[in-house]
Write a structure and sequence with these properties.
about 180 residues; alpha+beta; Aminopeptidase; globular
């Protein structure tokens, strides 16, 4: 099961079924869902979001660290504003991908890069992972900028994952040059 991570402004914690309403406010939005296919389609309603969360929770119970999915919660407000995941990419399950998804009303505040940075540091520093990746559609400039703020470097383009052209960003353990937010 994914362990709780804390950064300067965020708590990254395992999802619960009680998060369905707030999660739907993220994954039910076209602005978010449009970038998630084919890994995930749009979520049509709160009931469907509950089923997605149930699936994620069951998967996380069987997952081996450092993989998992976390709700991104603002520390002070206790409000779920997004999700972050560290999962193996298809087709071979060899490469670990960090993905992040935020409610549009909190875009532009650095929360995605803070959450991605926390997950990357956990995996690379405490779980002997050599590298993590971010895969981004070429037209998703916002996600590409977030990958770079996490500390990832552009590694090229590929159709290896999901059968579509994606830009690949990579962060290696040897390239960690600053502490995880919240740890000085």
């Amino acid at each position: 099961m994914a362990e709780t991570l804390v950064s300067d402004r965020l708590v990254l914690r395992p999802w619960t079924l009680d998060d369905a309403d707030e999660a739907f406010e993220i994954y039910g939005r076209h602005e978010v869902a449009r970038w998630l296919s084919p890994a995930m389609g749009p979520v049509p309603d709160v009931g469907a979001m509950g089923m997605v969360l149930h699936h994620w929770i069951v998967e996380d119970e069987r997952a081996v660290a450092p993989t998992g999915r976390w709700a991104i919660e603002l520390q002070e407000q206790k409000r779920v504003i997004g999700g972050v995941a560290l999962l193996y990419l298809p087709p071979g399950g060899e490469d670990l991908e960090i993905s992040w998804h935020l409610a549009p009303d909190v875009w532009g505040h650095g929360y995605a890069s803070e959450a991605g940075h926390a997950v990357a540091h956990e995996a690379l520093q405490h779980h002997h992972v050599e590298e993590v990746f971010g895969v981004v559609r070429p037209e998703n400039e916002r996600a590409a900028a977030t990958a770079q703020r996490i500390g990832m470097e552009w590694a090229g383009e590929t159709e290896k994952y999901y059968g579509q052209l994606l830009q690949v960003y990579r962060l290696r353990a040897a390239d960690l040059d600053h502490p995880m937010p919240g740890q000085r």
